[in-house]
Amino acid sequence: MMSASEAAKRAAEHVTAMTGRTAESVVGIERAGEDGWRVCVEVVETHRIPDSADILAIYDTEVDADGELVSYRRVRRYPRGRVERD
Hints:
Layout: H1 4-19, E1 23-32, E2 36-46, E3 55-63, E4 69-79
Antiparallel strand pairs: 1-2, 2-3, 3-4
């Protein structure tokens, strides 16, 4: 079974390959069944000046036990620095 840190690394690599944008960070990870991982990866979709005006996105991915991409989709876009309220 792949470790959480390895799954996060592989998911970030897959998002970079699929979107052409470099992953900024992993913002969530959890097991997806017995053999995979669900990983949320944050990327900068639009660089702006100043950086505080960048547009970020969260991609929800799933990787299997071998680190292969099973699914991915963009679930959210937002300006950098926006605070979520519960």
